[in-house]
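FAQ
Q: What does a multi-component entry look like?
A: The components come first, one per line:
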Amino acid sequence: MYGKGLRALSIATAVVLTGATALIFFYAPLEADQGIIQKIFYVHVPLAIVALFGFVGGGILAIKQLRTRSREWDMRSYVAIHLSLVFAVGALITGSIWAKASWGHWWVWDEPVLVSFLIVFLLYCCYQPLRFSIEDPEKQARYASVFAIAAGAFVPINFMAVRLATAHIHPRVLSKTGGSLPGEMRLTFLVSLLGVGLLFLTLWKVELTAKNASMKLKKLRQRLEAGEAPATPLPEPAPEPVGTP
Amino acid sequence: MTFVLAVAGDKYVYAAYGVFLAIVLLYLAIMASKLARIEREVQELGDK
Amino acid sequence: MTFAAARAILRKDLAIELRTRQSVPAMALFSVTVFVLFHFGLDRNEIDGSLASGVLWVTLLLATVLAVSRLFAAEREDGALDGVLLAPIDRTAVYLAKASALFLYLVLLELIALPAFAILLLGPDLTQALPELLAIVALADIGLAGVGALVAGLAAETRLREVLVPLLLLPLLVPVLIASAKATKPLLMLNPAATDLGKWLGFMALYDMVFVLLAVAVFDFLLED
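Then the predicted structure of the entire assembly, as tokens:
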């Protein structure tokens, strides 16, 4: 049952996200160099961080899948990766808008977050094609998990490589997240990060609930079509692939 | 409270937050269509 | 036990390669063709510096794709993988054998592609840079072979094999490309500059270690049933 706790979670998400928006526009001070443009930071960086953790988390859930061989974990890993891909697209687009606003170009190669997200995005775009080109559901789950683990390890290594290759990083807020961010900006950033993180969790649970419901429904239908013989234990219906191509 | 939104370049800020909103809403639309399908199937199952 | 099995599979692969010659000559021919393409595409007779190291490494990466998509071809065509899997050997042996075979193919390829590159396109003299270049090539080959064999195993059983191999492999190899191209660039400049060779070699060693260990850990799961 994935629906449990979903209501409380979505209310918390709504509250934190609203609070974050209020903090961003009415509390956080204007940054000296970039002015209002710097406010893109509060949506771009949380999206990027959450997507990054989502990819790595998808890999960890995939380890669980390989350990337990349960379809539950496969479903969780699948939804986490697919949601992270959506967030990564958000990070790419907002990053590109930021680049345009700050430097007048839609793309800057010396921005490590943006560049590594493009590479990671290109890799994870193959996740679904890989999944759906394997028919057997059990094998599909195994192969998807192996991919998720390798790609999950790839994400931080790739980030490191791109970071090393970017000799000079533009002096700006992003490189200062380490703690030298002024207090108000730091608080605003942390609240935004929490909000986006909660949003990820909520959407993850929503999608899992929907998937679980439709799978249960399919089982019920099969049982009904089999002629409803409750006395005899029914043969387990063939598991069907997670997600629809 | 200062007039923070009046500085030049604010259209990019709107665009960035618009993208965020659009992605969430698009996701909601996809989930909504899935929910509608589940409802329809439950309906069909109930009619049998 | 594992290593004996791996050696046996490797010997078989090399014997097949020696007889049919389907991977290394194709890779070598492909590389020379790409050099010719770059000559006309860039409209340059001689290149150096970042352009030279980029052309060299992109070509080697693309040639790797050829070998990776053929890596499980013999097993697939005869259904021989089932035979290997029926044998009571560790699955890791299959990975080690395939990665070693790929590593040897890459070394053979470079024995042809590097001199060809030096003759056809490279401006500066390659021999001065040779010791450093060999270290870079060795570490890069381990990475290419380790990741290549894993991707070959992932894609071997899928319907979209031909498309998935390059699309999966090339993004995964981007860190190798970054490190090797950055490390090679100062070696191929007309006036050799200071290098930060150590940093890139260290990074590649880390990459190789992580992915080889990871592949050894997860490869078992690809070859079940």
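Q: Is there any commentary attached?
A: Sometimes. For this entry: The mean pLDDT of chain B is 80.
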